[in-house]
Amino acid sequence: MLTGVLCIYMVLVLLLKDFAQPGTILSALVLSVPGAILALFLTGSALSMPSMIGLISQKPAGERDVSAADRERRELICASCGGRPRANESPGVNAA
Predict the structure, then answer these.
(1) Between the N and C ends of the chain, which has fewer C-beta atoms within 10 Å?
(2) Domains of the chain by residue range
């Protein structure tokens, strides 16, 4: 089990290029399930189908953070390439 957690951590480090944010994501995922069960216990609610779907859908929350980081990186790359002329837009190539 420890090997699996370390593999997930290393993949997140490679994706996010940071050592702290993957730890935050993994700790949030670990703490979310007991927190949800505690909330069900405190409110006296049963473990119903909607609550099970909510528990299962907590896993992609960390993946949304990764996609947000990818989106930001993609926007920065697009912004840096915006001022450069492309091959078909360079002056004199398609001049008639």
Answers:
(1) C
(2) 2-81
Distance between CA atoms of residues 16 and 85, nearest Å: 30
Cα gap 35→29, rounded to integer Å: 10
Structure tokens at 85: 């002329």
- Provide the sign of the torsion angle of the four alpha carbons 24, 30, 31, 36, taken in this order: positive
Question: How far, rounded to the nearest angstrom, does the alpha carbon of residue 94 sit from its chain's CA centroid?
Answer: 43
* Torsion (CA) 41, 45, 47, 52 in degrees, nearest 10: -100
Q: Model confidence over 38-59: pLDDT tens digits?
A: 888 999 988 888 888 877 776 6
- Say which amino acid occupies 15: L
